[in-house]
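cache lookup: miss for this entity combination. No prior model stored, computing from scratch. Input as submitted by user K.M.:
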Amino acid sequence: MSSPPHRLELRGITKRFPGCLANDQVDLVLRPGEIHALLGENGAGKSTLVKIIYGVLHADAGQIRWNGHDTHIPDPAGARRLGIGMVFQHFSLFDTLTVAENISLGLDQPGPMDALSARIAEVSERYGLSLDPRRHVHNLSVGERQRVEIVRCLLQDPKLLIMDEPTSVLTPQEATRLFETLRRLAAEGCTILYISHKLEEIRALCDTATVLRGGRVVGSCDPRKETARSLAEMMIGTELSTPERLPQGEAGAAKLQVRHLSTTSDNPFATNLKDVSFEVRAGEILGIAGVAGNGQAELMAALSGEALVPDPASVAIEGRPAGHLGPRERRLLGLAFVPEERLGRGAVPELSLSENALLSGYAREPLVRSGLVHFGRARSYAERIIGAFNVVTHGHRAEARSLSGGNLQKFIIGREILQKPRLLVVGQPTWGVDAGAAAAIHRALIDLARSGAAVLVISQDLDELFVLSDRIAVLFHGHLSESRPTHHTSVEEIGLLMGGLFNHPPDEDEVDRAV
Amino acid sequence: MTLLRLEPRGEASRAMVYATPLLAVALTLASGFLLFWAMGFDPVKALHAFFIAPLLSLRGLGELAVKATPLVLCAIGLAIGFRANVWNIGAEGQLTLGAITGGGLALAFYGEGGWWLLPLMIVAGMAGGALWAAIPAFLRVRFNASEILTSLMLNYVALHLLNYLMHGPYRDPDGFAFPESRLFEADAVLPLLVAGTRVHLGSLFALLAVAAGWFLMARTFIGFQIKVIGLTPTAAGYAGFNQKKIIWLTLLLSGALAGLAGLGEVAGPIGQMNPTISPGYGYTAIIVAFLGRLHPVGILLAGFLMALSFIGGEAAQIALGLPKAITGVFQGMLLFFLLATDVLIRYRVRFGAKGAAGSGVGRAAA
């Protein structure tokens, strides 16, 4: 304890929420210049701990020492004054403002705009984060938006930078560049606290890892000396069963055919689909990769029926034109659908699990009879889902919002799969879901495909797509690439496609965007 | 640190949903007690005059039911719409239209009525209210025009329409140019339910509306769709619920109930058409709906409470010489305490400093 003081030292941090102990006597030591991973399943207490460090939450008990001195972090502004910066998983940027204006809004003392722009240019160049301060945020890719957030932190000369799942929105190439920046920062003495589920990248990037489980520290290790599997097992506390790769069976009849699908939207920030064509056959899983904001939301809406498409024939379910049909009619044709947003689209937060079972279950399960809801059946349907998919909850009465992300996702996927769909469309099946639940969800999707249904997975997580898919296609600026068999492609090749390197005639729209 | 803290409950307390209105009434009475005492009145006597005396006579109870009837009828319909985020502020106008169409029939068939006239008037009153509500429904569905504004503005149109009719076609030919119609004939008047009071058949309709409203929201799939659309419109879109259909349905339904309330006034206690059918029942019903937590049974109780505050206020003016504003003061306190105590539904009060309990580690059950 006499050598150079620790950058940050937490002793016995305890934080209790009603009904759960989020942090239980957590100790954590961060040294200057290290890249320290914070690992744990969802609900393990990572976010709570990080929010305590950043002053968003206050610990019920425990001490925080900063550079060797006891300290109290009253709020995020106090954390920034100490030299703590944080890049959140979800950005808080205004689309209609420029980079410099956005950054100025987040600074405690922004100073004149010209000087600020010059400093932004300087800092972004020094750390290899190319960024034009005058551009508007709505023109930026997700990776560039993240750079805005990082530069905003760097301008305050942080001694500790907290990164919350930073690569979940990046292409592999963008992630590699981010790692270079982080390594350079660490070399200059900045400490980085890195939160992620992606074990491979923690092995590649971090010097130390602290593993949380159920609110307690269950171990710390040097991730470079561990395997991804051993890290995962430390996280979930049991042995991990990874789903086997689906042997390439012969695909059956086309369940979903999309032909020359183009969309138009009144929303200036929407990405219109341009001449998208693909099909998903019985028994196979097609994965659609791509960085967020390249048309995934529009494709999901056009497939689910939440947005109708002008030409009915451009979306066909089991050979029947369905583009003009709403969600209910498409469900009757055999479609089930898991949206990207769980709470607020896939489930109603304030309603119980039985009522949420009814939300999409009404179409294919006998839950409604002559206009009356059969609540007994809705309850037993919810209980069937809870049982079959190991949803951790205190029963069918629990409100959807009381479930953790992973459990709610298991419930929603279970609700769709138990309807025995002939075609399942899933958006981001395991985004923000812990490893145990993710494995269960992957298992369920593969089983569904094996039983003869067609499955379409739209995800930004390449590892996931490589585990699940038989074929992978990439969505970029509203165009869809040709699909490739998974075993004939590589992460690198898909990564390049995600950056837009595939053959399609450039169109005016993109030229506009580039200006 | 502090002696009194609010701690989130994690999930809504069902007991508190029912307990807080009672708590609010208790707090209102306690504050009223202090208020009367500070003003130099005998608080027990004043509260008695305000809240108890009107309930002691059959006639008083009858008046309570008469006043509560239009409030409950309007509020039931409004609440169903509010649950779906359909903000019909136009119950006053829809009520007026119901009186105009239903009452118009009574005048049109003056002297040639029969048993069939009253049922026809009831249907016409509901249709009139529903038609008036159909205008904002159409504008909302077709042009996405805010129903808050359109339904509100139509209230004034309805009032002017009534005024025109009362000075023209509806006026009593033998009425010396007073803007009043002939008194309705017996065939066109709602039968009284309790002798010695003015309680009429409309009160029974209000009770039926309470039961039907509960059934719709609690048991039917339409009610479920209304709930989902109100809570999370995107989830309703995902599930494939037709939001336009629900807008039409809720507006037509609340319009019809308000129209029935209007018909009940002219064919009930008023017994003729005049230019002041409603002292603002359609507006007060908005408060009743929220006071009753948008729940039919709650609305029934809230309707009686609001009716009591009207009648008690009048009684207090007469018995104690209190200013008219006393009614507003009590209504305001009631609403204030209800909103304040509602925090207990999602939070519990804890005494003592934070974390001092110490033994909470064991409560970490998932």
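stored under new cache key. Residues 505-515 of chain A have pLDDT under 50 and may be disordered.
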